[in-house]
Amino acid sequence: MIEDIELESLINEVYEYYGFDFGSYSRASLKRRVNRIYELDGFTHFEEFLSKVRSDSEYYKHMVDEITVNVTEMFRDPSFYTVIRNQILPLLGSKPFIRLWHAGCSTGEEVYSVAILLKEAGLLHKSLIYATDINAKVLETAKKGIFPLRMMKEYSENYRDSGGKEDFSNYYTANYGIAKFNEELSQKMVFSQHNLVSDTSFNEFDLIFCRNVLIYFDNDLQKRAINLFDESLSMLGFLALGTKETIKYSISQSKYKQVEKEKIWRKIK
């Protein structure tokens, strides 16, 4: 187990050597994740670990990948997707073109979930989903649209609980223990690396998803991310966060109106 002072040393060294700032990440979450990789990779002395991070850029990338990966699933929190399906997409349907941003998309399960909703609403043909993450490794997985077949039973249940009426297996091809999702969905996705800590806005969006990413950030970084989303959101656009996240302490409440009890806000000013 690494000590708090050692964690601070790692944060400083990574910033100095690679320019990547872990300083605004929640310390408890960061420490837990660093401890995990420290133990998995068989280190017993912190200096040895730090030296490896400093001198081996491939190992540094491996460490960042392990620390920044988020757990995700298709149609996670079905009631959230019910609101997207029944209330948000009908409002966006009148637009000539719909731009969506999935920030912190991880391995892409939720990106494909939204693409399925767009298809069922008859809007996929005029939509584009920008899916970004800091972690290059998970983006490669997301691009492929390949997920373990054993997960499809659970994902199918989530899909039905969110109001899905189709046969979920129509959306993928099963082969050798994997499920590959249809290219019709992935053709409407653009995957790229983006760092919420340091990168700026790159488009204007009608709907932004950033679910269960901000819980890993401290208050200052949460505010920075929310302001970035505010700059990136079109008037009357929607921002969707995770179940434990809020815009409450980050931005003027008068600018946004919450949609029902879900963590979805509409920009009204």
Task: Record the SSE blueprint.
Layout: H1 4-18, H2 27-40, H3 46-55, H4 57-68, H5 78-92, E1 98-103, H6 109-120, E2 127-133, H7 136-144, E3 146-148, H8 152-161, E4 172-175, E5 178-181, H9 183-186, E6 189-193, E7 205-210, H10 219-232, E8 233-241, E9 256-258, E10 264-267
Parallel strand pairs: 1-2, 1-7, 2-6, 7-8
Antiparallel strand pairs: 3-5, 4-5, 8-10, 9-10
Helix pairs in contact: 1-3, 3-4
How is this structure best described in words?
43% of the residues lie in helices and 19% in strands. The chain is an alpha/beta fold. The strands form two sheets. It has a seven-stranded mixed beta sheet. A three-stranded antiparallel beta sheet has the order 3-5-4. A hairpin with a 2-residue loop joins strand 4 (172-175) and strand 5. Helix 1 (4-18) runs parallel beside helix 3 and helix 3 (46-55) crosses helix 4. The model has no long low-confidence stretch (mean pLDDT 94).
Summarize the structure.
Helices cover 43% and strands 19% of the residues. With 269 residues, it is of the alpha/beta class.
